[in-house]
Each structure stands twice: as C-alpha cells, then as structure tokens.
Specification:
By secondary structure, the chain is of the alpha+beta class. Among the domains are: 59 residues, Hormone Receptor, Insulin-like Growth Factor Receptor 1, Chain A domain 2 (Ribbon); 39 residues, no CATH class; 50 residues, Single Sheet (TSP-1 type 1 repeat). It is built from two helices and 17 strands. A three-stranded antiparallel β-sheet has the order 1-2-3, with no helix packed on it. A two-stranded antiparallel ribbon has the order 4-5. Strands 6-7 form a two-stranded antiparallel sheet. A hairpin with a 4-residue loop joins strand 12 and strand 13. It is elongated. One of its GO terms (biological process) is positive regulation of non-canonical Wnt signaling pathway. Its main location: secreted. Belongs to the R-spondin family.
C-alpha cells in the first residue's frame, strides 16, 4: 500500500491513496479490487459486480470472486447462474446433468424430465364421407384425444391423437338443401293460403247470416198487421124486431 493515504477521497471511499485507489469504504458499501492492466485498484460499490458475492464483516464489507464456472453466486459454494456451457443444479454448475434430469438450454438449468400426458379417447363420430352423412354406404368415423401435458426434450413423446376406422351405414338419399327449403316454403305458403281461404269463407258466412237477419227485421217492420176476422155467427144472428 502506498504510504500516501488521504482522508478526502471521492466515490464512497473512507480512505484512499493515489496509487491503490480506495483503501476502505464508507458504511454499507462493499470493497472490491478491480484489475487494470498489471495493477489492482480498490473501489467502493453499493453491490458486488457480476462474478462476485458480498460478505459483511464488522470492520469492512468485501466482494469476493465466485468460482470460475459461476457467473453469479450467493456464496462461493452456491452459484445462482452459470457461465456458458454449464448447467445449474442445486447451486452448482455442471457440464452434464445427473441421471433422471435433462439440460434446459433456455434456462441453462437441469430440470426434471416431463412425459406426455393425454386425455381418454372421445366417442366415435358419426359415419361420414366427404363431410356428408348420407348418400353413401361405406364411410369413416373418427375419435380424438387431447394433449394435457406436452413432453420435455427427453420425455416420452405423445402418441397419435386421432384414430379412424371404416364404417357401414344404411344407404339413404341426401335431401338437397335448396329443394328442401323450397318445399318448406311452398308448404308454408299453402298453409297460409288455406288459412286465409277459411277465414274469408267464415267472414262471408257471417256477413250472409247478418244480412238475412237484417232483411227479416226490415220485412217485419214494413208488413201491415193482420186484422182479426169477424165472427160470422154473430153477424148472421136474427134481429129482434118485436119492439
């Protein structure tokens, strides 16, 4: 250490020298040596840089180097991120993952092997041919299953999720959509026409009955009342002339 020690330092240093930089740090800061060419310079940082881990002591807080294969670490023996070409497993950096585990190139970690999982088969579909269920005798029916869990790189692959088999149906003709629609429209129009005809006939019948009733009432009003016929026996009775 250069004997020229200064108290008026910059950058978080408590004590420093012109030759070695920081010699001690202010409270809560970490002391770390940085190499510049052939010389090491002491600096004071709020957190340790990549490849170092921090240790706090009563008199000084220091940054120490991680292992050579470790990019970041919590302690010297516990790595949190490995350098390129290594896989992290339980705080250690390994070139090859243990048995029962596989290397995840995305996270650079050793992870458990995941096998494919699927659902049960669905019921067989209706017998079809070229998207139709009529107009043929032999067709195909299918059933499917869904993938619940996709496998990892070394996991068991998924089986086929679709099955097909031949089927036989009773041959029947397909009803054309346009013709069927036309027939339904004609039936609807005919039904409406019949209903309208019945309604008109009922209206005419009611009108005729009302007209006849009014005609009878008018005839009764205009026809003179019949006089009561005289009693012929009384008219022919003899006249008493004695008086």
């Amino acid at each position: 250490v250069h004997p020229n020690v200064s108290q008026g330092c910059q950058g978080g240093c408590a004590t420093c020298s012109d030759y070695n930089g920081c010699l001690s740090c202010k409270p809560r800061l970490f002391f770390v040596l940085e190499r510049i060419g052939m010389k090491q310079i002491g600096v004071c940082l709020s957190s340790c840089p990549s490849g170092y881990y921090g240790t706090r002591y009563p008199d000084i807080n220091k940054c120490a180097k991680c292992k050579a294969d470790c990019d970041t670490c919590f302690t010297r023996n516990f790595c949190t991120k490995c350098k390129s070409g290594f896989y992290l497993y339980s705080g250690k950096c390994l070139e090859k993952c243990p048995d029962g585990l596989e290397a995840n190139n995305h996270t650079m970690e050793c992870t458990s092997i995941v096998h494919c999982e699927t659902s049960e088969w669905s019921p067989w579909s209706p017998c079809m041919k070229k998207g139709k269920t009529c107009g043929f005798k032999r067709g195909n029916e299918v059933r499917v299953k869904e993938i619940i869990q996709h496998p990892s790189a070394r996991g068991n692959p998924c089986p086929a999720t679709t099955e097909s088999r031949k089927c036989i149906v009773q041959r029947k003709r397909c009803q054309k959509e346009g013709k069927g629609k036309k027939n339904r429209e004609e039936k609807r129009k005919k039904s409406n026409k019949d209903e309208s005809k019945e309604t008109r006939q009922e209206s005419k019948g009611r009108a005729a009955r009302r007209q006849n009733r009014e005609q009878r009432e008018n005839n009764n009003k205009t026809q003179p009342k019949k006089r009561k016929a005289p009693n012929k026996e009384q008219d022919l009775a003899p006249v008493d002339t004695a008086h």
